[in-house]
Prior knowledge:
By secondary structure, this protein is an alpha/beta fold. Helix content is 38%, strand content 27%. The protein is globular.
Amino acid sequence: xxxxxxxxxxxxxxxxxxxxxxxxxxxxxxxxxxxxxxxxxxxxxxxxxxxxxxxxxxxxxxxxxxxxxxxxxxxxxxxxxxxxxxxxxxxxxxxxxxxxxxxxxxxxxxxxxxxxxxxxxxxxxxxxxxxxxxxxxxxxxxxxxxxxxxxxxxxxxxxxxxxxxxxxxxxxxxxxxxxxxxxxxxxxxxxxxxxxxxxxxxxxxxxxxxxxxxxxxxxxxxxxxxxxxxxxxxxxxxxxxxxxxxxxxxxxxxxxxxxxxxxxx
Length: 265
């Protein structure tokens, strides 16, 4: 078994409005090992995005983690008694994020190369100008992109699939230990989805990067992930090796997700 990189234990998250309090995540626990790809699957509204935003501390003001713990590389990230925000330090440098809509997550007023350089300057200030340039070119080529063209391009000059690969490049350019992807293929056509999944596969092998792959597409998750975690109504209802979960699902909700997959004929 690989060494644990991220361990979430009994995490609960509440969303507050003027009239009510909603338990968005209820007692969630999961673990990701070094270099492991874990799929988090479930319908829209099942609590997947709320859970991963807890990992990166990206909640709106009315949403907050109320109990539980999260340990990343032996460091407790949620300390409810102190003001120190450990996650804000780790975010970007140790944990990268790929968002659902690539065009919305990229700055439309900056070239892709400028956005990559900005990340490197923030998290790796010790790098010289030539080293920064070299790393930008290398990471774009790892994405299967034309580095000369793409680094000079603005997001509106690229296709959706190219924008998504550029956003992945921004997330991994400083080589974080964990990448979290939030429905990163849902806005793409089938061909672009396959290209992005292949890129993610190669990256995790090349850099030994762990990944939490969040999706409602169980077929994509089965192609990419070592383990699957199933979430329903803010609760993790099942988890295990991908082949075992798909072949022998124990929870009715998991069986429903599998039976909903379209089949030829």
